[in-house]
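How it folds:
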Amino acid sequence: MSKLGKKLSLLLALVLCFSLLASCSSDGGDTTGGNNEGGNTTPSSSAPAPEDGSTAGNPNSDIKIGVVVKTMGNPLFREVAYGAVMAGEVFGCEVIPLATQQEGQIQEQIQICDDLIVQGVDALVVTPQHSDGIATAVDAAHEAGIPFISVDTAVNGAEPECFIGMDNVEAGYTVGKMVAEKIGGEGNVIILQGMAGASTSIERTEGYEKAMAEYPGITVVASQNADFQQDKAQTVMADLLQANEDIKAVICCNDLMALGAIVSLEEAGYTVAKTHAEADAIGTNTEKAIIIDEDLADSDAMAYELDRTDDMWALADYVAKGIEVLDNDTGFFMMCEGGKIDWACHANDAAASIHDTQALADAVQVAIDFAKEHADETLILVTGDHETGGLTIGFAGTDYDTYLDLLENQKISFAKYDSDYVASYKANKTPFETVLADIEKLFGLKAQGEEGDKLVLTAYEMEQLRAAYEKSINGTASSQYDQAEYVLYGTYEPLSVTITHIINNKSGISFTSYSHTGLPVAVLAHGVNAGQFNGYYDNTQIYHKLAGMLGIA
């Protein structure tokens, strides 16, 4: 292998290594700074240099790699720099981490790259400030025979050796869909974009807007750049709140801008509670409040009821708090959503869906208890927007029998199993036998047991589990599944969804789909004018019935 080939191979291994190190680091540093201070220096505590300052005797000791991140003021890029230095120690080469004084300084970043080229680095790894402007640095590196790798932000007008980043359009679309569902598919939305010209900002915004376009009831009233900076996001958000009314959601292209937006919301009169103690303090005197669950789980939502611990708020607690805050002499309207029932059915996790349905029932009971004291002026409606998964009682393997008590052996939702166990299996290549022990502990399914024990895995089920284990461990993307694989796993973690399929089926439960179905959903009414909600009709008519009752239609 040529010296250049050797260096390029090392560089790719190094980039992979520091990407992993940065993502796994627990030292997030200061996340409050919005001015993105840093400068062209090695990060002090976040990116330590090798202790002895030497790599003598190592075959890679003559290799020097420049790592240029956008700013040391952003925790993400501090972690990238930290990971690069740590990876350099692993491979025994010199890593020089640098950054501009502030995010967005493209000319300063180009100058840093030029200086590193003059110093004779063997490679450049850069998180570009802009997709367009950095092309000159790429060309200069190539003229000097230096490989250039772009991280996080793509390059236009030049061709780096490779680009390492995520599908920002798909990520933005996923976020947009989640936001749209959280606000019920209608309302005014603000988008805070990042740096103009940065592919991360452009592509994430494209994804947000693609998702919003699927909801006719949602209007994006403003989409404005805040340069990925906390302070600027705070200023921009304050201006947008003055110019626009009744904002239901704000989508930000990074965490720092979200922090700035929250400050503006608070200054605009919103009380933002992020802990149970802060939520407890909100009362009838609080005019505008946003309560964020203290224990967010998958997709930054409340934990599944199956995973909730006693110190965490349940859905019923939020309904009780909502009634406490909203109750007044003129009346109020409140909507509560047990949205994770839907998510669990998408994933074919019957136990998680049942537990969240019970949590919704507990929340409804809080409303009923309130209605008992206001019987002549309260209406409670319980319904769904659609059915998901095609859940049915009856499975071919159990004939006419059901064994629903078997579901009590499941102690964890599919999502928590994914995050707390499967991720570790993948990272450590955990043996199948060890995985089976976890499955028995968490789901009750076992390889061996007494005769008649319905939780003992059959040879067929064991074969299904092993195949799913191999698929999960190998990390095959669901987009690459053939038809048979999609029918088995959908877009979910093969091992997790196979476990829930098996325990569902043993219980006498089955699902027909991972998607929405045409099954009708019930509308249950209690209280004043409840009789208007009898019969079968499109559930979009609920609005018109309510509007008619209130005299606003």
The CA atoms of residues 349 and 500 lie 6 Å apart. The chain has four domains: 3-164, 167-268, 294-385+523-553, 405-514.
